[in-house]
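Structure tokens please, single chain.
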Amino acid sequence: MTILSMSGLIQPVDSPAEIADAAAELRRAASEAEITPNEVLESFESWAKKLDARELDEIPGIVFLRMWLRRGTLEPIVVRELGANSLDGGWTEYGRAMCRAFPLGVVGHWPAANVEIQPLLSMTCSLLGGNAALVRIPRSLVDLTSALMERLIESDPKERLTRRIFMAAFEHSRTDLHEAMARAVDGAMIWGGSEAVLQVRSLPFPHWARLAVFGPRMSVAAMDAGAWSNPEEQKTWCLRIARDVWQFDQQACSSPQVLYLERNPGKSTEEFVSNLRIAFENEDRAHPRRTIAAALTSAISRARASWLLDDPSHRAAFPMGPDWTLLLGSGSDLPQPVQGKTLTVLEVDDLMDAVSKFDGNIQTLGLGMADREKEKKVALLAGQRGVDRVMKLGRMHTFLPPWDGMDLIRPMVRMVRHVSSAD
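Here you go.
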């Protein structure tokens, strides 16, 4: 059975037996010869270069994927998570013991369909641990993923890496195929909304299988009075915010849905909002939306109308179409996310008040701060209130561990501890 070939990068599957056979082939491929993180990194580095092609530039997240695959990004992560000597499969000294990472075996991946490059991001995490990857590809991502995987095959002529990958395309409703995947794996990385995550977690995994779950959350941006009111830096901050909103069409868990601006007595936010509007217009021209679902268009229209009708002090800025929206007001309560490049901008008296209302559902807090001491206090309170990532604005999507409070590679390996019998 050919796991991956130029004629069948992603296999449509229709029976549990096909998945069971694919998993058995993956397990054989992984057991025949180990692959070190260094070998994986060599293929990834070549893959990143081949993804730098004009015909791929319109794929959402492609720039991020190219950066992620670089050795300069991944090598420090491998060393930190797996040990100083892990790159060539060596043992690392920990006190009187030696530790070494060993793969779990076959890792299943259930990516969300709303982030185009997520199947590949998830897959790379398990491959770096020496595992084989059994990846479920949502139907909507088949063509896009095929285009990206073609470049990986070109980067791996000896099939050291690609023979460890099987990508299965089947409908979300095929419970029998989801169950077959679960029975066949030794670990799983699960992404998506609450319903999808709960469905996958309830599948019949082996009792030894390890699960890494990245469920639905939202993210927030915030700026202190000194940062947003600095006229020399306003345009740069606004550009960073717009880029965080535009990546992944604001559907990722790391996408900012609200921006809190700490009041500066005697200083109006009008100039900042004007610059933010210009940044949104420029980003829209540079990266226009090609299509939009009717349901999202309706949600954006309802959000605009209800915002302006609910409170006479509310304002808004948006074009005639549903391309982007700024909803302007005040208060520290978290608004209901709309997505579709809809950012709610709220003035607050103190950022600490807004952060104190976080309820554990906030994944990333993007900050623009002039007061370094206050930033430390905000970050500490954010961590206490359940935030897992505190990032600079413009870098909210940076896919580096810990992610959702967890490492990305280590959960899918076994860290074997060896204490010499001579000691």
